[in-house]
Predict the structure.
Amino acid sequence: MAAGAHAQTLKSHPVFGNLPSREIDALAAVTREGSVGIRDYVFMEGDPAEFLCIVKSGRIRMVRHSGSGKDVALDLLGPGEIFGGVAVIERRPYPASAQAVEASVILKIPAHALISVSDRHPSIVRELALVIGRRLRAAHDSVTSLAADPVEARLAAMLVRLAERDGERGERGLALPFHLTRQSLADLCGTTVETAIRVMSRWTRDGLVREEAGHLIVPSLERLRAIASGEA
């Protein structure tokens, strides 16, 4: 039964959707499903790349650990998103750690199975490259922003990106369907938690963001875009 559900997940995913049914069924048969508690790690930076992972539910933060001991958040991944696949294909250690920011369920495809099917169907490598390409463009924008933009602009740009990607439209605006702590906000835009608290408190008073039941709501993307672009 689990294999059948995993097969449906793989068929609906752009990386695997073009594979023949027999290949999807074979991958689904060896796919493992596991739960990860909040703040627990799926894998650590430098670990051997043993699995390609797919977020089934929850949120996973990709993070690198600097020599100074400070974590650098690279991305926040939600349901349906893949991570760890390129390291598996290239047979190298994971370049970053994957940490759950909320209770999550992860599907894991063993390295030997992924490499075997990618040898027969190079489209997997191509689709993975497209996924990584999109993330690299976003990372490039983030690095450029870190170097040149004030904290408010970085925080606004990050909230716009999350709201556009993951936001659920409601009467009050775009609601992020996950809890995002002030520490996570600070990590994602390269500032201190104290600064994130201060800016978010001011934006809440000014109506730029709302918070209900622990979830952020963005009433107007345009107002945040104006801050992100330095026009406000």
Summary: The chain has a mean pLDDT of 88. The chain has nine helices and twelve strands.
